[in-house]
Write a structure and sequence with these properties.
The protein has 137 residues and is mostly beta strands. Helix content is 9%, strand content 39%. It contains 1 helix and 8 strands, in the order βαβββββββ. Strands 1, 2, 3, 4, 5, 6, 7 and 8 form an 8-stranded mixed beta sheet that branches. A hairpin with a 6-residue loop joins strand 4 and strand 5. The radius of gyration is 14 Å and the shape is globular. It starts with 7 loop residues before the first strand and ends in a 7-residue tail after the last strand.
Length: 137
């Protein structure tokens, strides 16, 4: 794989992460975060201050995770992570993120590289920076 762009990459987040480790040099030590019933997020996993996040539940899938909702805007810009009954975990984490999102077909799609533009105790909003990764190509 030479570059990520908006496309379907499969149903298994850990296999997709492993392929990105091989292709882009992401941290193999973080692969455990992308297995079944894991958080699907790893801070600084791609190097250069970039974190990796797989969104399994959102308005795209018609599911949520009970205490919070992920809303993917038109063409995924913006993405809003909203906590309903409690505060955001790791509120201080504002790293830029490489984001994959699951659709109703069960597949993950690369949606881009995003920057946190707004945050408070219940909401974090992400705006699109790049539609491809690596973005210097």
């Amino acid at each position: 794989m030479e570059q990520l762009s908006y496309a379907m990459y499969g149903t298994n987040s850990q296999k997709i992460y492993d392929e990105c480790c091989n292709s882009f040099g992401w941290k193999q030590s973080e692969r455990g975060n992308f297995g079944f019933r894991k958080k699907l997020y790893a801070k600084d996993a791609a190097g250069d201050g970039l974190s990796v996040w797989f969104i399994a539940h959102s308005d795209w899938t018609g599911t949520n995770e009970g205490d919070h909702i992920n809303k993917l805007g038109f063409f995924c810009d913006p993405i809003i992570e909203e906590y309903l009954n409690n505060e955001l975990p790791s509120e201080t984490d504002v790293t830029n993120r490489i984001i994959f999102a699951k659709k109703k077909d069960g597949n993950y799609y690369f949606v881009g590289v995003f920057k946190v533009t707004k945050k408070n105790v219940r909401i974090r909003e992400y705006k699109l920076l790049y539609r491809t990764y690596p973005f210097n190509q």
